[in-house]
Amino acid sequence: MTTPRPSPRIPISALAAHPWHGVSPGDAAPDVVTCYVEIVPTDTVKYEVDKTSGILRLDRPQRYSNQAPSLYGFIPRSYCGERVGARCEERVGRRGIVGDGDPMDAVPRAKTNWRTI
Predict the structure, then answer these.
(1) How distant, in Å, are the alpha carbons of 19, 26, 27 from that of 45?
(2) Domain-embedded: residue 92
(3) Is 95 contained in some domain?
(4) Number of domains composing the chain
(5) Which of 11-41 are b and which e, b meaning 16 or more Cβ less than 10 Å from the residue's Cβ?
(6) Confidence class of residue 48 from pLDDT cuts 50, 70 and 90?
(7) Buried b vs exposed e over 85-110: b needs ≥16 C-beta within 10 Å?
(8) Which CATH number characterizes residue 85's domain?
(9) What is the pTM of this model?
(10) Neighbours of 73 (CB within 10 A)
């Protein structure tokens, strides 16, 4: 018996949602958001989502002196650009703050009502 294979006309990437572009930040955003977690405190490596393909890849080893204190990830469909930098400048009263061009970082603060997708 052979294992069925996907049609060569349908790319594998079309079968899964891209974690940055293809996943909703959530119906209750901005009060409650979906967070794509890339690093956990117990891991010795950091993962990073490849922006083009959406594949989670190994980014670098995490040394014990650089261990994350909590879960760390990003909010899907978010972008830290000029508008986010300007808003941050306004809120904290400092100048020269710019967005880094990545999705908005997220650090979940409680385990209450967590769902795994």
Answers:
(1) 19, 28, 31
(2) yes
(3) yes
(4) 1
(5) eeeeeeebbbeebebeeeeeeebbbbbbbee
(6) confident
(7) eeeeeeeeeeeeeebeeebbebeeee
(8) 3.90.80.10
(9) 0.66
(10) 21
Amino acid identity, residue 39?
I
Q: Tell me how far CA of residue 63 lies from CA of 19, 40, 41, 81, in angstroms.
A: 26, 13, 11, 30
For 53-83, the pLDDT digits (tens) are: 878 888 888 766 666 778 888 888 888 889 8
> Which residue type occupies 51?
K
In a domain, 45, yes or no: yes
The proportion of the chain whose per-residue pLDDT surpasses 90, expressed as a percent, equals 8
Residue 102 belongs to some domain of the structure: yes
Q: Are 30 and 67 in contact (CB under 8 A)?
A: no
Domain that holds residue 35: 15-106
Q: Is the pLDDT of residue 20 over 80?
A: no
